[in-house]
Design goal:
Largest interface: A-B, 25 and 32 residues
Distance between the termini of chain A: 29 Å
CATH architecture of chain B: 3-Layer(aba) Sandwich
Largest sheet of chain A: 10 strands, mixed
CATH topology of chain B: Rossmann fold
Structural class of chain A: alpha+beta
Number of helices of chain B: 7
Strand content of chain B: 25-35%
Bound molecules: adenosine-5'-diphosphate, magnesium ion
Number of domains of chain A: 2
Structural class of chain B: alpha/beta
Radius of gyration of chain B: 17 Å
Strand content of chain A: 15-25%
CATH superfamily of chain B: P-loop containing nucleotide triphosphate hydrolases
Shape of chain A: elongated
Helix content of chain A: 40-55%
Radius of gyration of chain A: 32 Å
Helix content of chain B: 25-40%
Distance between the termini of chain B: 24 Å
Shape of chain B: globular
Number of strands of chain A: 14
Largest sheet of chain B: 6 strands, mixed
Oligomer: heterodimer
Chain lengths: ~425, ~210
């Protein structure tokens, strides 16, 4: 009979559709937002990472001098040792890296600045994996006239190109070197505008050391910094064993830098602070903002449910009062309304969450060009929260129902 | 032995005294008629006897239970076990068929039994209408469903508040014939009516005026 009462009233009443729609809308919005927050932190981080390197590796000695005097000493890194950074725990998060070697060359009797880099170096990691890496992803924002160099070509900074009067396609003649074609002229925004960029092997010949780099820049995919990451950055040794493990096994920029130092003796790996920190802060603020919006949506949903269910109980007060007069206990009548509402809500939550995950995918494709993961744990938590909101939403109606006096609704004129 | 004992009962709605010092005793098996002008407190009295409400002062004892001191839960229990209610307006659940409306009363009393519910409908002459929805039934037929629902659990006491007020003569006669059957079967009946002819069917008539028994 309970089932029959529920089923009949569900199929009869159109008010339930409105309730289902309300719940579905609330569920869709909260799901979309939460999924985006939970699933796209990585994509957002990746987007920001497109704007360059976030870790620099230097010889220990040079780093110390740099910190003391602001100069780079003569110590260098060994190129041969570089591939081992791909053996750290977070190896797959290292997306790109390139060594840099500063030296000079004579062009037409003039001394010019030379920077050796990898343009597109294919190398084999200690794990036997082949990969191609180079400076292009680290300096994506450069405006290049012509082409990014590959093989043994050179690129000229725009100022140097103007001084030397060499256009794209011309050949660069450096003392003691074969002629090298100029594939492109770049605007680096200042950094290397007065320099010629060469493959590091050629720069090494000029410097007289084929295995040397002054520093290495790494672009790694990182988890935005949080409070733990900030404490770890201050002093990893001060963390409790458990915190240390959490930190070590999370792709914070500081833990990746730390792991690089672990595998490579005699180097100092430092997060490029400004970028990494600002990035973490922006992401965590946006996350907070979005979660706040999701919370408010949930609240609005509960309020809308409260209105709809209260209205429906008022409209059906004669019927519900009659059940009480016939001997139904308060609890029995309440159960009837709650079960009805929950059934409708479950349909709404289901449909809404499917739509919400879909919406998140659409936004994901629009914003990042990729799908957004919807973690099961997050979805489960959402289901619980949404149903809780529904239950809370039925609270006012429940109170009304509890106080409903059958004699008052039944004898009304 | 009396089934109902009212002693010095008063019911106030704010300043308004709907019932004032009413004492009344109804024996088991009696058919009592209640008459009185509109607003004289008839429905209020029925609500008190029917365990739907509690008095402001005085005691109401029904079948040995003191209703004036019962909790809401106990009132529900007593209502379920002892009373069958019939209203002036035919209160049926609109989305349930006639037989299902009868079964609702079974459900909250004990267990549903379709055959028994059907027998009750047969008794009020609505066997062929069992699967109709209330809106497919005439007023008289709806009231007969209400009667079937009121008698389905074999209550000791049937309370009818102006049961024939909205019925045509033929349906009125049918409902009254059912009351007579119930009475013969030993059920205690209290019927509120404006119609002296209906009141005359009862063994005794109580007249209310301004909340007092005349
Ligand atoms: N729930 C209530 N709240 C306030 N006044 C009420 C209520 N129920 C009845 N009354 C008042 O009590 C008086 C008696 O009402 P009622 O018992 O319904 O009279 P009757 O059934 O004889 O017409 C009336 O004046 C009515 O307005
Ligand atoms: Mg009345």
């Amino acid at each position: 009979m309970f089932v029959k009462l529920t089923a009949r009233s569900l199929t009869r009443s159109t008010a339930h559709w409105l309730l289902a729609l309300t719940v579905a809308l609330g569920a869709a919005l909260t799901t979309a937002i939460t999924t985006l927050v939970a699933g796209s932190a990585e994509q957002v981080s990746q987007q920001l990472k497109v704007y360059g390197s976030n870790i620099t590796i230097r010889p220990q000695q040079a780093a110390a001098l740099d910190e003391l005097y602001g100069t780079t000493g003569s110590a260098t890194l060994s190129l041969a040792a570089l591939p081992q950074i791909k053996t750290i725990f977070w190896a797959y998060n290292i997306l790109d890296f390139s060594p840099f070697l500063e030296t000079t060359a004579q062009v037409d009797g003039q001394e010019v600045r030379v920077v050796g880099v990898w343009f597109d170096e294919t190398l084999t990691t200690p794990a036997g994996e082949e990969l191609t890496t180079g400076v292009h992803p680290l300096r994506q924002w450069w405006e290049v006239d012509g082409e990014w160099a590959s093989g043994s070509a050179a690129m000229l900074g725009q100022n140097l190109a103007a001084t030397l009067g060499l256009p794209v396609g011309a050949n660069l003649r450096m003392a003691g070197m074969p002629e090298i074609p100029i594939s492109g002229v770049f605007d680096s925004g200042g950094e290397f505008d007065d320099a010629v960029l060469l493959p590091i092997s050629l720069a090494g010949q000029l410097a007289g050391d084929a295995d040397a780099a002054n520093w290495v820049e790494v672009m790694a995919l990182t988890t935005p910094d949080n409070e733990l990451a900030r404490r770890a950055a201050a002093d990893p040794q001060a963390l409790s064993a458990k915190d240390w493990e959490t930190w070590y096994c999370t792709a914070y920029v500081s833990s990746i830098a730390y792991q690089i130092e672990e595998v490579w003796d005699g180097v100092v790996a430092r997060p490029v602070r400004q970028v990494a920190q600002a990035e973490g802060e922006v992401i965590s603020r946006i996350t907070q903002l979005l979660l706040g919006v999701a919370g408010l949506t949930l609240l609005a949903t509960a309020i809308a449910i409260a209105n709809l269910v209260t209205k429906s109980v008022l409209e059906r007060s004669a019927e519900l009062g009659l059940l009480k007069a016939l001997g139904a206990s308060n609890l029995a009548v309440l159960a009837l309304v709650e079960v009805e509402t929950l059934l409708v809500a479950v349909v709404g939550v289901g449909a809404g969450m499917v739509a919400g995950v879909g919406l998140a995918q659409w936004v994901g494709w629009q914003a990042f060009g990729s799908a957004v993961a919807a973690p099961a744990a997050v979805l489960a938590l959402l289901v619980a929260l949404l149903l809780l909101a529904v239950l809370l939403g039925t609270w006012p109606a429940g109170r009304l129902l509890w106080r409903l006096k059958p004699q008052e609704v039944l004898h009304g004129a | 032995m009396s089934l109902i004992e009212l002693n010095g009962v008063a019911k106030a709605y704010g300043d308004l005294l709907a019932l004032d010092d009413v004492s009344l005793s109804v024996a088991a098996g009696e058919w009592l008629s209640i008459m009185g002008p509109s607003g004289s407190g008839k429905t209020t009295l029925m609500n008190l006897i029917g365990a739907l409400d509690t008095p402001t002062a005085g005691t109401v004892v029904l079948d040995g239970h003191d209703l004036s001191r019962a909790s809401a839960r106990e009132l529900t229990q007593i209502r379920r076990q002892t009373i069958g209610l019939i209203f002036q307006k035919f209160h049926l659940i609109p989305q349930l068929t006639a037989i299902e409306n009868v079964m609702v009363a079974q459900y909250y009393h004990s267990l549903t039994d379709r055959a028994e519910a059907f027998a009750a409908l047969e008794r009020v002459g609505l066997a062929e209408r069992a699967d109709h929805l209330p809106r497919q039934l005439s007023g008289g037929e709806q009231q007969r469903v209400c009667v079937a629902r009121a008698l389905i659990n074999c209550p000791k006491l049937v309370l009818a508040d102006e049961p024939t007020g909205n019925l045509d003569e033929e349906n009125e006669a049918q409902v009254l014939r059912l009351f007579a059957e119930l009475h013969q079967g030993g059920t205690t009946l209290i019927v509120v009516t404006h119609d002296p002819a209906v009141a005359a069917l009862g063994g005794r008539t109580v007249k209310l005026s301004h909340g007092r028994i005349k």
